[in-house]
């Protein structure tokens, strides 16, 4: 039965990928770029859901882990001319190593101490990037994954190429993360999150489990960072500000921090908010300063409203409502 369900879900991912690729050829350049951005946020938010929703560890510095993946990708691409696929694999591996080192410290911390440690990483990384010339300083480094293959046709633009790469990476990573969360590792993380003492008494090595969660989450975040730098064409400290980490956490809460299936809600929201904010600012004619800060204000407001009214996310809220309805009908 489990194998049948797994095959059905794999088929769903394949069909979704086919639909996305068809859409990529039929929408304008702006929508294609936004589609690539949504795919990036899907990957990034899923890393937060894995870490926080399942293992119970709070990170305020996932933007820094994304930056590690992005810098690893651009250096391997520019300095060693690695193929595109290998470039993203390297981003995952280097970010995962960074996550393992951070996870080793995180296993000894919890609550605000862990959040503070990851926050310090997000704040300190831009200064670190400016200390090494190989990282390009404030100007950053251009990241070019190359032109689309000529076999795809002359009308196949660079942004469509980015969309194809980002969408394929998002589908593969989501499928892998979903399978990991359904595995023994996912069950161990949930057990440790609920009660560490009980989990340890049942034979789970809680510290090792936490380190593994941080490692996998960091690897997924590194992939998201490499994809993000691909879509904007550059890797620089300004591409991974502290606000990015807060936005990812907000996206995870909007998705339902313990519900991977709602990840698209958070990703679409994060991509749509700047456009909505710009439209609102244009209509009401506010100052340039308020226009700049309006997206952050809207994200913060959404976060507060979600925590107050749908703390588990809309998808989990819907499931709970349906379960209660089914229980009432049964009785």
From TrEMBL:
The chain crosses the membrane at residues 6-24, 36-54, 84-107, 161-181, 211-234, 246-273, 294-311. GO terms for molecular function: branched-chain amino acid transmembrane transporter activity. Keywords: Cell membrane, Membrane, Transmembrane, Transmembrane helix. It is a multi-pass membrane protein. The keyword Protein biosynthesis does not apply. InterPro entries: ABC_transp_permease, LivM-like. It is found in: Cell membrane. Its main location: membrane. GO terms for cellular component: plasma membrane. This is Unannotated protein. It comes from freshwater metagenome.
